[in-house]
């Protein structure tokens, strides 16, 4: 049976159905960037909130690709969300998305709509551009002119201080004082930390889910059981009655812990894993050398410099390792490796600089950064096209000597611009460990980094 409203009305299979009457739901949220992550994370929280208050349906906009709209339009925007864990798989149908439109004109109209009270974004690290800001400001101009209600603009991307970063970007695009006044009085940009590992959907997922639920869904989403959303308690108007959201005064400590422990380890595995023949996170984390390396790096180089309590962080890290081990998730390292130029600075360089300030040599973080350079060189030599907004520049660098490449990466405004000359030297030395090494020889070399040093 093809998933749609009519099919769902008659459905009595194992997938849970929305716990509210969808006909009562009205749009209150505009979401920019309707990818798998949003559908696994925020839309699931909204789906729960709609049981208590139907005024928070999601009007989604994809800024670039029409593929999600095209897949979900004939399903009345319904989709299946499956959670895969060690205990098996469970699924529910999410009804929170009321429409999907494509392009910036649609986004402006949706944001300007007086019914919109919350704007959320998952546009990825590379999406925070001047064009995005101009688009939002154009919509805010219309809201200011129509004296529209307060609006909360909530970034849900993996950026440190994402709310502040977005506010600065938007304010830089303001063209007149009326809008500035409207923003000062009626718009807030809370920060938030979002977390749910969501691999790209595969054909095998589609087939397995259809067999399990009896519903044919053109684009289901598969995720892990874990979910977390920490939001700065700074909304402009009322907020959806979410369950499970942690409202805090300051998101920064959570954001930093997540970026440096989860995302930092992810990027490290995504760079080194394929060099040892691994394709998925669970495979890479089961490799004793890689596991020791990320474990040592997290415990000795990262955790001591985070501001949350030590024992909380130790438990947090233990849970992360268990999440990485999830054998049912099939999270591809190649997916994580995409856009590393936009990720490396906050995930690996920032913690390295802090460890150095505290007098540590932090060899694990140094090696992870060197592994990015080696990853670029290997992919380019193999004729693969990097999935990265800086692809042309990076492929060109990959053909130069490691010294020259690193010098270019370290130039002002480039991904490794924050590395000091000392650190550049260390990264280069670590790169020599990896350079063109394969198999057992590479494992032997990596062992040096997996053993405790700074302890
Ligand atoms: C991953 C993240 O692809 C990546 O860069 O590190 O998408 C990660 O899975 C999420 O942040 C988990 O919340």
SSE topology sketch:
Blueprint: H1 5-10, E1 27-32, H2 36-40, H3 42-49, E2 57-62, H4 67-72, E3 79-85, E4 88-94, E5 97-102, H5 104-112, E6 118-121, H6 130-145, E7 151-155, H7 162-172, H8 177-186, E8 187-188, E9 192-195, H9 203-213, E10 221-223, E11 228-232, E12 246-248, H10 252-272, H11 281-286, H12 288-302, H13 310-325, H14 333-337, H15 340-357, H16 363-381, H17 391-398, H18 402-409, H19 421-434, H20 439-450
Helix pairs in contact: 5-6, 6-7, 6-8, 10-12, 10-15, 10-16, 12-20, 15-16, 16-17, 16-19
This protein binds D-mannonic acid.
D-mannonic acid binds at residues 158, 195-197, 262-263, 266, 335-336, 343.
What does the model show?
- With 455 residues, the chain is an alpha/beta fold.
- It has 20 helices and 12 strands.
- The strands form 3 sheets. It has a 6-stranded parallel sheet, sandwiched between helices.
- Helix 6 (130-145) links the parallel strand 6 (118-121) and strand 7 (151-155).
- The longest helix has 21 residues, at 252-272.
- It is globular, with a radius of gyration of 23 Å.
- The model has no long low-confidence stretch (mean pLDDT 97).
- The site of D-mannonic acid has 10 residues, from helix 10 and helix 14.
- Residues 158, 195-197, 262-263, 266, 335-336, 343 line the site of D-mannonic acid.
